[in-house]
Amino acid sequence: MSESDGERTFRVDLLTRVEGEGAFHLKVADGRVREAHLRIFEAPRFFEAFLRGRGVHEVVDIVARICGICPIAYQMSASRAIERAFGITPTEPVRKLRRLIYCGEWIESHALHVFMLHAPDFLGYPSAIEMAADHREVVERGLAMKKTGNQIIELLGGRAIHPVSPRVGGFTKTPSRRRLREGLRDALARGLDEARQAVRWTASLDPPPFEQDYVFVALSGEGGYPLEAGEAICVSGRPDVPLDEWGDAIVETHVPQSNALHARLTDETPYLCGPMARLHHHAERLHPAAREAMDEVGLERTVTNPYRSIVVRAVEIVHAFAEALDLVDGYEEPDRPYEDAAPRDAVGSGATEAPRGMLWHRYELGADGLVRDARIVPPTSQNQARIEQDLVSMAPDLLALPHDEATHRCEQLIRAYDPCISCATHFLDLCIEREEP
Amino acid sequence: MSRVRVIALGSPMGSDDAAALRAAERLGDRDVEVTLAGRPGAGLVDLFDASVPTVILDVVRRGADPGAIVEVPLRRLAGAAVPGDGVSSHGLGLGDALRLAAALGRPIPEGVLLGIGGASFAPGETLSPEVERGLDAFVQAARDAIGRLRDGEGGDGCTSTG
Fold first, then answer.
1. Is the minimum CB–CB distance between B125 and chain A shorter than 8 Å?
2. Residue whose C-alpha is closest to residue B5's, from B139, B149, B104
3. A203 touches A259 (CB < 8 A)
4. Is A372's pLDDT higher than 90?
5. Secondary structure (DSSP) of A226-263
6. Most distant CA pair in chain A: distance in Å?
7. ipTM beyond cut 0.95
8. Any idea which of A127-131, B1-5, B114-118 has the lowest mean pLDDT?
């Protein structure tokens, strides 16, 4: 902290317990915020550039490498975009298998965040390792749920990290009914019980008071709680936006302090995507087991305190376990593991709900089967402007706190969003227009 | 003769960070269970089985010259692991995973960490010349460690080739 002439600066040079490399800088003078910057300085990773010129069927494998925590989200959004471009409609059994593997990803990602990354903030530990010594049962419960999520991904995806079997149109191979039941059913039933306990436990944690007025943005979903597909985007207080009109509703801009682009609505309103947005728009579509868990702890569908997102994630873990259990019990092996179509000149966009929020892809494809252009908008980049807005809103309260506590409060707020900075780093194309003399 | 588990860490798209994965792919053997774990983060603790001797292959950023090989017994590493910087949820490294396992009261398996010094971790699928040259020796070191563990020789010393 620096403090002079009524000016205070809160700065964390390296954010911990978030994925990737970031920092924040909040400058307050005379009770007013002068600067609030979430800086993302992790180097851009150029995945969109890597994709240009690659074969269309390589895309799903390449984008899986963007994130070790949410590879399924990248694979599913890419698949949906390419399928929509080529007019491929996955069969219903394939759609259900996609929801199952996606449930696995939500479970492992949410369990990691709730128990290993976010909970230590509430209990006053620097990390889950120190927390484990005093709260062994809680950490073991989180690790057990995470392991079951990974088992789902491994069984359907071929391996738990960077899975290989998802492909455009479906899967390279699908499991037998017996293998699915024997491999997952018992673990899912145990996990559902553990997830219910997790909702009760997270609801017992004491969040700092901080209510905000959010514009929530989530995928419309197709029939169920939004997950593996959707044809429109729901925006608080506004008409739904068809998926192909994404660019008319949301703009990305480059800001000096960040290697991740900032996304806002076209009227420059920052918005929130992720678990709180999904719950706000689609609470009635939660699995009955998840709604029951919500009701038991008195959680409303509209949560406006970001620190309470830990409870929302726990509710979504219940949903994912309960839906996964239903999908395993009702599983019928598909006649064909995937649908295919001949390449052609086409443009397609697709979006799914990654654990951290909506993930949108757009591809321009050629009849030669190669990618002409690719664009990927991850949830952390969409939430970045909203995080900065929250830091601004929090500033008056911070001034009354000792510096260490104020800094911790900021860090805890940013972590509540579960930002995945590695996913979010990419650059805009640079276009220089020169006027003719 | 004991079954031995090999856990390889790293990224195939991080230049030298792929070296342990490349080495593990060359260890086909019916009595060796090879897991290409990538960057498993907290999931690494679930890959430990106290009853199965384990060789962990990884790439070392500091403490070894590029292409040089270091060997540290896992149990010694668990006792001496320095807390990581906690920067990344994915990046809960080997030292932190061992600390977490210890905090949870989970026994650490017998075995060793074998690391090869890396020179470049930039995005890419090509190993640096130093690591490429050291890869054969890295694979041989892994085979030697597997052989010792299979014969019930855990070994308790640290070694380094540079």
1. no
2. B149
3. no
4. yes
5. SSS--SEEEETTS--EEGGGHHHHEEEE--TTBSBPEE
6. 74
7. no
8. B1-5
Instruction: Return the closest-CA partner of residue B6 out of B69, B52, B72.
Output: B52
Match 């230049």 to its residue by tokens. B15
Structure tokens at A284: 């009635």
Q: Do B89 and A146 touch (CB under 8 A)?
A: no
User: B87 and A14: CB-CB below 8 Å?
Assistant: yes
At residue A365, φ and ψ (nearest 5 deg) are -120, 150
Of A343, A337, A349, A390, nearest to A366 by C-alpha is A343
**B85 to chain A: closest CA residue:** A16
Greatest distance between any 2 Cα atoms in chain B: 42
* pLDDT greater than 80 at residue A274: yes
- Cβ of residue A39 closer than 8 Å to a chain B Cβ: no
Sign of CA dihedral A397, A402, A403, A405: negative
Prediction pTM value: 0.86
Token readout for A252 is 């990305």
Residue with tokens 């994925």: A19
pLDDT tens for A81-126 read 999 999 999 999 999 999 999 999 999 999 988 998 889 989 988 8
Helices (H) and strands (E) in chain B, counts: 5, 6
